[in-house]
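Why should sequence recovery work at all? Because a backbone constrains its sequence more than one might expect. Tight turns favour small or flexible residues, buried strands favour hydrophobic ones, and helices have their own preferences. The token representation captures these environments compactly. In the example below, the structure is given first.
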């Protein structure tokens, strides 16, 4: 009974936290839209850093980039932001957060084989993990920080590997009719959106093939 109550309490807390974070992100995007003008893309890019370090999903920012700035500018801002944010989390995990990350490795037993593989092909492994996200994006930043992958290879592979999904989300953002749709209401994809997402997945498959 106590375990059930505890699980219910945890679920409610997580649900409320998610709602709160979504509202903050929506207010942030509204601020960017109304007050920042040409500085908007830069501020959006920088916003990825705290979100990624705190392991907060940044898909709302990615959609918002497409909605606010269109495909070219939105993609550049989101792509750079996601890469810089992942690099910041990687550096944090490799330095002052290393002991915490190591303590969490036991929760991801399959990652051991990944860590061993990075010793031979760090760039390819990181690229494949970004193209095919078998692990949560934000946690992956920290898990990879305790591998021998150099920061330069990590960021380049992450940048390339995240391009297809970033491009798909930015495009979806460009098709939204209202800023409120960034946080809800975009799950009912049109045929065009599905075609674009499938194209992104096919691009991922091609990149994986080229890696081998």
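From this structural description, the recovered sequence reads:
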């Amino acid at each position: 009974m106590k375990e059930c109550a505890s699980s219910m309490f945890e679920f409610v807390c997580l649900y409320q936290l998610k709602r709160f974070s979504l509202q903050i992100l929506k207010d942030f995007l509204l601020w960017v839209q109304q007050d920042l003008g040409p500085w908007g893309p830069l501020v959006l890019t920088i916003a990825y850093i705290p979100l990624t370090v705190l392991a907060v999903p940044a898909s709302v920012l990615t959609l918002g980039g497409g909605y606010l700035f269109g495909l070219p500018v939105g993609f550049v801002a989101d792509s750079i932001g996601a890469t810089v944010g992942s690099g910041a989390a990687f550096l944090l995990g490799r330095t002052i957060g290393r002991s915490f990350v190591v303590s969490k490795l036991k929760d991801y037993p399959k990652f051991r084989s990944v860590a061993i593989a990075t010793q031979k092909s760090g760039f390819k492994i990181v690229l494949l993990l970004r193209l095919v996200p078998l692990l949560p994006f934000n946690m992956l930043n920290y898990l990879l920080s305790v591998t021998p992958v150099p920061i330069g290879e990590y960021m380049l592979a992450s940048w390339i590997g995240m391009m297809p999904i970033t491009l798909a989300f930015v495009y979806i953002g460009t098709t939204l009719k209202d800023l409120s749709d960034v946080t809800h209401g975009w799950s009912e994809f049109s045929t065009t959106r599905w075609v674009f997402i499938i194209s992104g997945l096919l691009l991922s498959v091609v990149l994986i093939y080229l890696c081998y």
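A few observations help interpret the result. Residues 61 and 81 are 10 Å apart (CA to CA).
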